[in-house]
Write a structure and sequence with these properties.
Length: 238
């Protein structure tokens, strides 16, 4: 209607409508798709990405990346997500965790690459009990030994050379960027935008430490956890 009022040509009207439809596909609001449960939502959003991906890159500022999480840590995350989304009608946390854990089988395939960059504070954050966090960090060390997995950690005390922290994001090959926000998922597929995130990931990876240095950072956090006084653990590692 607005195009008709403004005297826009039929061709330009079609172009604008196509752009509007494309923009709508970029954003998926959880309130629109999530009421039937977390498992149904993640299946809808993820689809067959992990079956197709050859190079998966992720930059994480909040939690341990999902592909590297333990059962207990992931259960805590998914339980918290369901609590935050008060419109979710189904309690399917267990099914959602099982589905997410099943994706970790792709980490064993040598013809794929899974490359992670994690800000060091993520190692120190304790969203759950000390026992869960310690088990998660120990598991992270084990996963870093897989041939298909590379983990870089950006130390808190290193000079960043102007490379400031970014929002958490993940990149599927050179085709798609996913940015998970509080209320929905933003998906970018335009080549220029994907290339911008690939460059950002590479810049962040360049200031991260890897291999022995990354292992040392993780072990330092585990040692600090071991020195804490005992606590009542609500989420013991199974």
């Amino acid at each position: 209607m607005w195009c008709r009022i403004c005297g826009v040509s039929e061709q330009r009207t079609g172009e604008l409508l196509a752009e509007q439809a494309a923009a709508a596909r970029l954003w998926s609001a959880y309130r629109d798709i999530g009421r039937h449960g977390l498992n149904a939502t993640q299946k809808l959003l993820v689809g067959d990405i992990f079956e197709r991906v050859r190079v998966h890159r992720q930059y994480q500022t909040k939690v341990i990346p999902g592909l590297l999480q333990t059962h207990a840590y992931m259960t805590g995350i998914m339980t918290a997500v369901r609590r935050e989304r008060d419109d979710v009608e189904v309690d399917d946390v267990a099914e959602a965790v099982t589905e997410r854990l099943s994706r970790q089988r792709f980490l064993l395939e040598r013809d794929r690459q899974f490359r992670f960059v994690i800000e060091e504070p993520v190692l120190w954050f304790r969203p759950f009990s000390t026992a869960v966090q310690r088990a998660q960090l120990t598991h992270l060390l084990e996963m870093m030994n897989l041939p298909a997995v590379t983990v870089g950690i950006i130390p808190m005390i290193h000079t960043r050379d102007g490379r400031r922290p970014r929002e958490t994001f993940e990149i599927t090959d050179t085709a798609q960027v996913n940015i998970e926000l509080l209320t929905g998922l933003l998906v970018l597929t335009y080549r220029a935008e994907v290339d911008a995130y690939i460059r950002a990931w590479e810049e962040l990876d360049a200031i991260a430490v890897h291999h022995a240095q990354a292992h040392a950072l993780i072990r330092r956090v585990i040692t600090a956890l071991d020195e804490l006084p005992p606590e009542g653990d609500a989420h013991e590692e199974e």
